[in-house]
Amino acid sequence: MNSTNTAVSRRDQILREAARLFAERGFHGVGVDEIGAAVGISGPGLYRHFAGKDAMLAELLVGISGRLLAAGKRRVAEAAGPEEALDALIRGHIDFAIDDRPLITLHDRELDRLRESDRKLVRQLQRQYVEEWVAVVGRVHPGATEREVRAAVHGVFGLLNSTPHLGAQSSLPGRREMSELLRGLALGALTALDSTADWRVTY
Question: CB of 51 within 8 A of CB of 30?
């Protein structure tokens, strides 16, 4: 059991450092030896865990898409109602946006480097994740059309996923303060859906 736990821990450590280095210097700007040095093993030693950098990138991007979807489904299933489900979805995505900033950068810059099958899988998982949000937001804001709800959800994703562009981690508010700020901004953005029916009638 201990050897299995150690292997899993080392694998996760490699992925974390690879994500950081890829985000900082670009996928092609990082060598296997540098990733190995960051985790204290030889570059060739990484091949006991991954076939190469392409495999690391695929696991990072497919993995986070799958985890977001699974966690989102769980939060919705466990919620007592749509408002609680929405708050849980927002808080879960904020945790990702704050704690996994390098993965957001990787997705923006390196998604096209994945082989086609992996890229399609990422997109499929992301679409399912969006649908979880659309269903919940639609119940919380029933006066909005599905098109408006979908646009609002993508807008909130853009807001929450802006964390890599906010400067160095040390320049941001504390984690709790940042989390509450992002939550308030997301909820505020979605409340705009309540006025869309009036806007459609007026204009």
Answer: no
Instruction: Give yes or no for a contact between 51 and 32, defined as CB atoms under 8 angstroms apart.
Output: no
Give the rounded distance of the alpha carbon of 33 from its chain centre: 27
Separation CA 160–CA 49 (nearest Å)? 32
CA distance 109 to 124: 19
Tracing tokens 């806007």 back to the chain, one arrives at: 199
Residues 8-30: pLDDT tens digits?
A: 578 899 999 999 999 999 999 99
Give every CB contact of residue 120 below 8 A, 6+ residues apart in sequence: none
Q: How far apart are the C-alpha atoms of 23 and 79, rounded to whole Å? A: 34
Global pTM value: 0.87
Q: What's the number of CA atoms in the CB half-sphere (13 Å) around residue 171?
A: 6
